[in-house]
Automatic annotation (TrEMBL):
Protein name (Swiss-Prot/TrEMBL): SGNH/GDSL hydrolase family protein
SUPFAM superfamilies: SGNH hydrolase
Signal peptide per UniProt: 1-23
Cross-referenced Gene3D superfamilies: SGNH hydrolase (3.40.50.1110)
Any GO MF annotation of the entry: hydrolase activity, acting on ester bonds
Source organism: Vibrio casei
Length: 257
C-alpha cells in the first residue's frame, strides 16, 4: 500500500511538473520575456497597419524562409485584417480560425491609438477584448504576442505611451510583446534618412513593414534577422535592409533584458 502511494505521488508530481513547464511556455512570465518552443504556425490579427505593403505576414514569411534551414519548411503565416479595425472586431475571427487549425502563436494588433485613445470607451474596449481573446487563445494552446504599434510621424512623443500600454495589457493577459514601435523610434533616431511611413504619416512604408517583420523574426525565434533577404519587388538597398535588421535585433534584445 505504501509503495502504491509513493508511486502515485511520484506520478502526480511528474504530471504537475510537465503541466507547469508547458504553462510557463504558453503563458509569458513577463511581457518582455523571451519566447521558446514551437512558433511555426502564426496568425496575425490586425488592420491596415499589418495589411499594407503586401501584408506583414508575407514579409515575415519571406524573411523566415531566407534565414532558417530548409527554407523554413513547415512554417506558415496568415494575416487576418479588417480595415480600420479595432482588436475586438477580431474575436469571432479568432474563434473561426481556431476551428480550422491549431496556431502556435496568435498576434494581436489594436487600432493605431486604441490602447491609449481618449475616445470614450475605446481604451476600455481594447483591454476587455484583449483579455477575452487572450483567454480564447490560451485555451486553444496558442501563445499570444502583441504587436506594439508605432507613434504617428508627427507625434513621436506617443511612442512610450503606446509601449507602456502594450506592456501593461501583455502583463495582464500572459502575452509576449513584439516591440515594433520602439524599433520605429530607434530607427528614426539613428537613421532619420530612412522613411518608415506612408505619405499619410501613419501607415508604414515598405521599410516600416520590413522593420516590423524583422522585429517579429527576432521575437519569435530569438535569432538575428541580419543577413535576411531583401523584400521582393522593391528597390531597397542591402545597406538599408541591414540597418533595419540590426535595429530590429538590438531593439528586441534590449527590450527583453
Amino acid at each position: 500500500m505504501k509503495l502504491f502511494t509513493v508511486i502515485s505521488l511520484l506520478i502526480s508530481l511528474m504530471c504537475l511538473s510537465s503541466t507547469q513547464t508547458f504553462a510557463d511556455t504558453l503563458i509569458a512570465p513577463t511581457a518582455n520575456a523571451k519566447m521558446s518552443g514551437n512558433n511555426k504556425v502564426v496568425a496575425l490579427y490586425g488592420n491596415s497597419f499589418t495589411h499594407y505593403n503586401n501584408n506583414l505576414n508575407t514579409r515575415l514569411r519571406d524573411l523566415t524562409r531566407s534565414l532558417l534551414p530548409n527554407k523554413a519548411k513547415g512554417y506558415s503565416y496568415r494575416g487576418i485584417t479588417i480595415s480600420s479595425g479595432q482588436l475586438g472586431w477580431h474575436k469571432q475571427n479568432l474563434i473561426f480560425q481556431n476551428s480550422l487549425k491549431h496556431w502556435d502563436v496568435v498576434v494581436f494588433q489594436g487600432n493605431s491609438m486604441e490602447p491609449i485613445s481618449k475616445k470614450k470607451g475605446s481604451k476600455e474596449y481594447f483591454q476587455k477584448s484583449a483579455k477575452e481573446m487572450a483567454d480564447i487563445a490560451h485555451k486553444a494552446d496558442s501563445k499570444v504576442v502583441y504587436l506594439m504599434t508605432w507613434a504617428p510621424k508627427a507625434k513621436p512623443e506617443l511612442t512610450q505611451k503606446l509601449a507602456n500600454a502594450y506592456v501593461d495589457i501583455a502583463t495582464q493577459t500572459g502575452g509576449y510583446v513584439a516591440p515594433v514601435g520602439l524599433a520605429f523610434a530607434n530607427t528614426l533616431q539613428q537613421y532619420p534618412e530612412i522613411n518608415l511611413y506612408h505619405s499619410d504619416g501613419k501607415h508604414p512604408s515598405l521599410a516600416g513593414t520590413y522593420l516590423a517583420a524583422s522585429v517579429f523574426f527576432a521575437t519569435l525565434y530569438n535569432k538575428s534577422p541580419v543577413g535576411g533577404a531583401l523584400p521582393v519587388d522593391s528597390d531597397m538597398t542591402p545597406e538599408t535592409a541591414e540597418k533595419l535588421q540590426i535595429i530590429a535585433w538590438e531593439t528586441v534584445q534590449n527590450f527583453q533584458k
